[in-house]
């Protein structure tokens, strides 16, 4: 009997040890696979990043604005750098068909037309600085600029929509027209140039973020929630304003939904009602950080969460969103998604993450 008890004890001990040696199960719950490709060392905090094809535009704080391009061997090189003013560059955006780049700091906004190779400014803005002076001085907005969006109306007209934090300004609409300058005794050769010729303005409460989809515009109103509007020329018709549980910092259209970055309260999902005329609350989701900004990759929301890095949220079921996974990107201001790459503007530069469905 003792021998049987001893054998049973040995068997139990072996089973316990075997169980302890088993590898942890592979977590297959994630909807996506993400890995860090490289880091573009910008030399200062990367506050914003915008990508067109293989060209990367960065608002690099005290360094100014930078242009990076992917080379044939897959590496990325900085090919251009320019400082518009003595203030840190905060945002950058490009209208690709007209090659117009817009940027702003805490005091004013600037624009330039890019060269055909996207490796600097068009020669018009280099050789004719006196004539086109407005592109290098305070051109649009104010020290309260928060967000902007750009849209090409036709080959000779580009609209720029700027959100201003000032409560009595709200949304500002700027229109840039393309003009032709014939050769004369002052300038050799004819050329085209762009100039701000008309400003339309809609006032409202404090505004922090905006997004465009066709004639619809969504605006985040800080503690006042989120508004849905329809653009009719320079007029802005209010379709509805709804409260949010936290401060609404930014908005993003996703299919027939609107996502709101609600700071400490996470992200909120609204359904856009019939006729694009209203917002209907669907769901809230909290992540491990305060949500500042939203990008979209397929059915994944990419959330910039400041010191908590990035969180991915699965939106395949918008009424039941799920946290997919965190990305330890360090302090992240904003992201931009192009193809299967997440470009993260962080305090360590621009981090490029490859993302694919699992």
Radius of gyration: 25 Å
State the major sheet: 4 strands, antiparallel
CATH class bucket: Mainly Beta
Class of secondary structure makeup: mainly beta
**Number of beta strands:** 27
Keywords:
mainly beta; Methylamine Dehydrogenase, Chain H; 50% strand; 358 residues; four-stranded antiparallel beta sheet; 27 strands; disordered N terminus; 2 helices
In brief:
With 358 residues, the protein is mostly beta strands. The chain contains two helices and 27 strands. The chain has one domain: YVTN repeat-like/Quinoprotein amine dehydrogenase (Methylamine Dehydrogenase, Chain H), CATH 2.130.10.10.
Account of the 3D structure:
This protein has 358 residues and is mainly beta. The chain has a single domain (29-357), classed as Methylamine Dehydrogenase, Chain H. 7% of the residues lie in helices and 50% in strands. It has two helices and 27 strands. The chain has a four-stranded antiparallel sheet, with no helix packed on it. Strands 2-3-4-5 form a four-stranded antiparallel sheet, with no helix packed on it. Strand 22 and strand 23 form a beta hairpin. The model is unreliable at 1-6, 10-28 and 129-137 (pLDDT under 50).
């Amino acid at each position: 009997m003792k021998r049987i008890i001893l054998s049973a004890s040995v068997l139990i001990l072996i089973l316990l040890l075997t169980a302890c040696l088993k590898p942890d199960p592979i977590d297959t719950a994630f909807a996506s696979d993400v890995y860090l490709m490289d880091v573009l060392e910008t030399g200062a905090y990367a506050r914003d990043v915008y990508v067109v094809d293989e060209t990367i535009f960065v608002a690099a704080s005290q360094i100014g604005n930078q242009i990076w391009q992917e080379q044939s061997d897959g590496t990325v090189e900085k090919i251009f750098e320019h400082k518009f003013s003595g203030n840190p560059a905060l945002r950058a955006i490009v209208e690709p068909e007209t090659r117009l780049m817009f940027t702003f700091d805490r005091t004013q906004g600037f624009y330039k037309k890019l060269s055909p190779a996207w490796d600097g400014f068009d020669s018009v803005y280099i050789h004719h600085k006196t004539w086109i002076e407005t592109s290098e001085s305070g051109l649009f907005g104010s020290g309260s600029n928060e967000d902007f969006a750009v849209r090409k109306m036709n080959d000779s007209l580009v609209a720029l929509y700027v959100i201003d934090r000032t409560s009595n300004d709200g949304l500002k609409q700027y229109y840039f027209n393309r003009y032709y300058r014939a050769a004369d005794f002052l300038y050799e050769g004819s050329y085209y140039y762009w100039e701000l010729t008309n400003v339309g303005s809609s006032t409202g409460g404090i505004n922090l973020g905006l997004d465009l989809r066709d004639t619809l515009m969504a605006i985040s109103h800080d503690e006042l929630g989120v508004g849905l509007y329809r653009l009719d020329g320079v007029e802005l018709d209010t379709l509805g304003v709804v409260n949010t549980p936290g401060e609404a910092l930014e908005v993003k259209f996703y299919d027939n939904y609107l996502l709101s970055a609600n700071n400490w309260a996470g992200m909120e999902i609204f359904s856009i009602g019939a006729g694009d005329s209203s917002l209907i609350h669907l769901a809230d989701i909290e992540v491990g950080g305060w949500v500042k900004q939203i990008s979209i990759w397929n059915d994944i929301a990419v959330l910039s969460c400041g010191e908590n890095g990035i969180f991915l949220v699965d939106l395949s079921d918008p009424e039941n969103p799920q946290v997919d996974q965190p990305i330890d990107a360090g302090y992240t201001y904003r992201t931009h998604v192009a193809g299967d790459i997440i470009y993260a503007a962080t305090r360590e530069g621009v981090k490029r993450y490859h993302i694919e469905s699992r």
